[in-house]
Each structure stands twice: as C-alpha cells, then as structure tokens.
Amino acid sequence: MRAAPRIGAIVALFALAQPAWADEISDFYKGRTVSIVVGHQVGTGFDIYARLLAPHLSRHIPGNPTVIVQNMVGASGITAANWLSSVAPKDGTVMATFVHTVPYEPIFGNDKAQYDPAKLTWIGNMEESTGMCGVTKASGIATFEDLLAKEAIFGATGATGPLGTFAQAVKNLVGAKLKVVYGYKGSADVKLAMNRGEVQGICGLPISTVKSFWGDEFRTGEFKPIIQLSGKPHAELKGIPHVDRYAKTDEDRQVFGLIFGAQTLGRVYVSPPGQPAARTKAMRDAMMATMKDEKFLADAVRAKIDIEPMTGEEVAAFIAKSSAVSPAVIARAKQAFSRN
C-alpha cells in the first residue's frame, strides 16, 4: 500500500522537471542565432527548402532564436559535412542540409569524406524524395527506351555528386547511352546548360525540385522525366518506368536500393556529433512541429514543393539499415559509379 504515495511523488517530480527543462532550453536559445548551412548553390532545391523552413522553424524552437540560411558549396555537399563534423559549434545552434549521397560517401571509401555518419546528429527530413532522370524536348528522346539506343549528353557536378553518380549508375547498370559532362556547380547551372543546348539531360533530380525550380519547363514539356530512380512510383510520373524494372536478381535490387533508394532521404537535416541531448530533442521536436504547421504548409503549397517528413530517429535508422549491406553489394555499387 506504500507504493502509491511513492509513485505519486515521482509523477509530481517529473511534472516539475518539465517546465524546468523547457525553461533551460528557452533560456539558451533566446536571443541566439541558429544557422542552417546548405551544402549547395543558391536556387537549388536544398536552398529553396531551407529558406522556406527557416522563419517557421524559429517559431517552434523554445526561445524563438533567429534562424538564418547560409550556403557552403563544395564537393557536392561533402565540404559542408566535413565542416559540420569537425568545425561547427556543437551546442545546438547549427544544422546542415545536403544531398542524400553525402552520408554514404565514407561507406564507399571516399577519403575526402572526413566524418562518420553514425555519429552525426540527425534532426529530420522534410521530404521523402522520388528521384528521376530527365531530358530536354530538344534532345529528341521521348522515352527511356530511346536512351538505350541513342546517346545523349548529361550534365553533372563533381565526380562524387549525385548528378554524376546517378547518371553513371544508369549507364553502367541499365545500359543507357550517356556521355556525362562534369564541372557544373549544381543543378541550377546544369539547367542553364540545358537551356543553352550544351547538354541534353540530367539525373538525380527530386520531383519536388522539378515541380518548383523547373516548374515551367516541366509543365510545358520542355523538360521531360524519362525514368524514376527512388521511392515508390510517383502519381505525377504515371507511365514513367521505375529503375527497379531493370533489376534482374536479388543482388541487383540491393545495389539499386543502395545507390538510388537512398534518395528517399530527400531534404535531410543534421547537426554536429556530440551536441547536448536536450537541445537535439528540442530541434527534432521543432522540426516535426514545423512540418505540421498550417502557415508553413500553406507556404509550401505556394512554393510548389512536397512535404513528407521523417523524424531524426527514422533518418538515423534508415541510414544504418541501408549501410548494413554486404561488401559484394558495396563493391558493385562502387563499380557502377566508375567513369568509363
């Protein structure tokens, strides 16, 4: 009979602890600035998402700090990830966003990727992306099957960026006749090159970027998606084949999942390793609260971008699961990226 008073005392102490925790977090963030570092160009999908997120996120972080967006371009997001891991303050005032391939670079043995994805602090994901390859109307390519018989020039960033690795993987695994031209700063530059007729296609674009930044070209048919690369078949891409159709064995499907399936991570947000757990929780809670915020969602509709979030815990689990593949699958994936 003495257990009841004891339980009551514990509940009372817990109730008292909650405002104290909230006050501590609020006191820390009040008057501070939280930075979102975008590892890509201004005007890319990652930049558009971050700038939409920033003012709304501020309202959901205790203490309502100012949230700003900065761009740190380099090595297709790896520069930002290296900075986040080794230089950025580990106090809960920094998040970064970069392309989904970045967490997997250490797995593929990229010695320029000086971070451990398992130790980074995953905050959440704004959109589970469906990726694609697409071509200009001027290319004369109407379907993906055409690309199996007719060569086209595709634009890409660096050798480790998804625009290049996805194009090479489609070429090496599926047999598309692609010539990949590297050296563009980001998808915004590739878009300009496509409009000038320098290149005819691009791989690795999420549907959300196509609908927003490439919206006019998409609606008029000047830009045409020809194959889906990740996630479930998208309703707005009905009739466009999914790359999984070309997997012939179970190992093929694992290789495709490791290379293309990771694009499900979409617009992922991450903080440095080792930051205080309470501030991590506050940022994760703020991210998910923002994803349900009516004002934010209305702005997302106006910006013509998709919102389909994952929690920080779900992101961490997804990365851990997709990383735990056999050495044979990793070797095949690395071979698929080769520039031959």
Topology record:
Layout: H1 3-29, E1 33-38, H2 45-60, E2 66-71, H3 78-86, E3 94-97, E4 121-125, E5 131-136, H4 144-147, E6 152-155, H5 162-174, E7 178-181, H6 187-196, E8 201-206, H7 207-212, H8 215-220, E9 223-228, H9 250-259, E10 268-271, H10 277-291, H11 294-303, E11 310-311, H12 312-323, H13 327-336
Parallel strand pairs: 1-2, 1-3, 6-7
Antiparallel strand pairs: 3-10, 4-10, 4-11, 5-8, 5-9
Helix pairs in contact: 2-10, 9-13
At a glance:
With 340 residues, the protein is of the alpha/beta class. It contains 13 helices and eleven strands. It folds into two domains: 3-128 and 265-325, D-Maltodextrin-Binding Protein, domain 2 (3-Layer(aba) Sandwich); 131-262, 3-Layer(aba) Sandwich (D-Maltodextrin-Binding Protein, domain 2), CATH 3.40.190.10.
